[in-house]
Structure formats: C-alpha cells, structure tokens
Amino acid sequence: MDKLELVSLNGRGRAEALRMLLIVSKASFLDHRVNLAQWKEFKRREQLPDDTKLPLLRINGKRTIVGSVEIGKFIASEFGLYGKTKAEESQIDDVVNLVENLQPNLAPVIRATLAKDFIKRKEAWAEYKETTLAPILEKLTEKLDGNDFFVGKRLSWADIIVAEILSRFASCFDSNFIHNHPSLKHHLMSIEKIPSLAKYIGDRPAAAF
Questions:
Q1: Are residues 175 and 94 both part of a single domain?
Q2: Which branch of life, at top level (predicted)?
C-alpha cells in the first residue's frame, strides 16, 4: 500500500474534498496541515519550487502531485471513484469543472472573511451568489436530475466534490442558500450520512473557509 501524505493549509479549502475522498475510500494517509511559515520551510526542505501551490500529495515520500484536480483524479482513479467507463469519467470531469468554476470569484469573500469585515463579506457574498453561484447551481441541478448520484448508480468524485463545497458554503458563509435547491440539499445530506464521512464531519473543527 502506498504511503500517502496530503499537505494543505489549515482550514477546509480545496483540500477538504480530497480528505473526504481518502476517508470514504478507507485509505490510510497523513493529513499534514501547515501555516504559511511552515509551508515555506516545507518547500525549502523538500526542494520544491517557490511557486508550488497547495494542496499537494506525496506518494511514498518520492512522487508529488500538485493541485486539487490532479490529486482528486489520482485518488478517484486509485480507489474506484472515477466511474466505470471513459464516458462516466468525462461526466465526472464535467461536474468537477463546474465546481472549479466556483473558485476564482470567491476570493473577495475569503479576503473579507480573513479581515473580519463582515459588512464587506455580506456584500461580496451577495454579488458572488448572484453572478457566480446561482448559474452553476442550476447546471448542477440539471446534471443531478433528481438521481441519487451525479454519474451512474454509485458514489464518485463528482458527488464528494459537490457535497463538500456546498457544505462549506453553508457552514462558512450562508446557511440559507441551499434551501432554494432541494435536490442538491437532499444529495448533500445523503453524502454526509455515509458512515465514515459522518464520523469525520462530526469531529471536524469549525473553519473560516
């Protein structure tokens, strides 16, 4: 069995769906969370380029995969969460890409959160929700189409990444937005009831983002 080390900043962020993938797969891994000073030292010690981004996955202390999508694809492929066919892989990629499209415009919300400027955060979230989140939630609702899973008849990376980001938004920014999307809310609740994930989520500390 490969020795896996997931390195990320403190908090949930893009690494959280990767943790959930590993947990639901019952994979043994080191969850290595660092602050910015520790990350700088880690890069120096491991001789990584200065512009290396988190999260990253170390495999047996030798191979390094950088980036949440690349890591997610590796984990999902290794543990049977990347569909049964090439067509299903493509469908999963489509869902993952939609979730990734939620990320870039979130920066003003996160900056206001870190600055504890809650008035600015409320304004930034309202704009984000209208211009970025709402259209993508509609597309995700269409892809789910009332089914239990986004792709095929079983759990995949697509289900985990959607459930995680919707849960994170509800926990960190706005607990009410999900109520307007009942099929996605039902899907989220069903994913979070998976026993291994339910235990992890129950023990998970609160995070700002």
A1: yes
A2: Eukaryota
